Amino acid sequence: MEDLSEEMGKPRSKRERLATELRRLRDLAGISGRDLAGRIGISQSKISRIESGSVIPSLPEVTAWGDAVEAPSETREQLADLTQAVFVEMHAWRTALQQQTHLQDQIREQEDQARLIRVFQPSLVPGLLQTAEYARRVFTLFDPPYVEGDLPTVVAARLQRQVALYDENRSFEFLITEAALRCRPGPVRLLLAQLDRIASVATLENVSIGLIPQDGEFLVCPSHGFTLYESDGSVEDSFVEVEVTHMRLTARNAEDVALYRRQWALLGDMAIYGEAARDFLAKLSADMRSMAG
Q1: Which of 83, 209, 214, 240 could, after both became Cys, cross-link 260 (CB 3.0–4.6 A)?
Q2: For the chain, which ranges sit under pLDDT 70?
Q3: Domain 100-292 is of which CATH architecture?
Q4: What strands lie across the sheet with 207-212, from one edge to the other?
Q5: Which of 145, 57, 95, 103 is nearest to 241 (CA)?
Q6: Where are the domains of the chain?
Q7: pLDDT value at position 235?
Q8: How many CB atoms lie under 10 A from the CB of residue 293?
Q9: 4-87, which class in CATH?
């Protein structure tokens, strides 16, 4: 039997490696998906989704899988380690951008799989709401920097993601702090256009935008923005991504996702919506115009 450590050295995601190895072990054992499902106590359809990589099995399920196919103890330990690693993945920006021009298409693929996307942003306007010029200015601030000639492609890819906002079968919720709304990566006119864009998107039936004024009482103070991807499938298909300066962290563990859901609920209690949010944006725009003199 091929050592799983050799499989782990191949250039695939941990999620893909786990799915491939579980399928390989089942095939080697000569057990059908139906039989394995009966031995583990899960549905045959879930076996298929695990082996395709669309669902991540829990550690108890992986342990039961290893028992059912009579995998060697060393392989079972490696499976357990890989499963734990899959639930929390770390993607360094520098490494990712060495392999491709930008990550917008990859992010769009993730968004396309979600029924509901919830975005909290404490420092910048969320990418799905950015105007073209605001996005271009933000990308020029990245470190490591984008190649100048790549910026039009990156901006266009970000704007392409925004088409999803007009799909009435999908839902989007945004919570944005006042600090993020005031962040100005360019002249005042740039921010005024951006605030108008937010007000416009907020009129869509499938989009909710909550604004968090800085003079209110804070119930929670997350230091980084995060995005919750809620799936049409089971709870285990949902996950959260947290963006920090040097990397993007993906957490799929149910307890971790639940933590961010609790934070989302508290942030939502701090936010204003509807007419109050529109009035707030109008006041903020007036403040910006007065600054422009």
Answers
A1: 240
A2: 1-12, 232-236, 293
A3: 2-Layer Sandwich (3.30)
A4: 88-92, 247-251, 239-243, 226-230, 116-121, 171-177, 207-212
A5: 103
A6: 4-87, 100-292
A7: 52
A8: 5
A9: mainly alpha
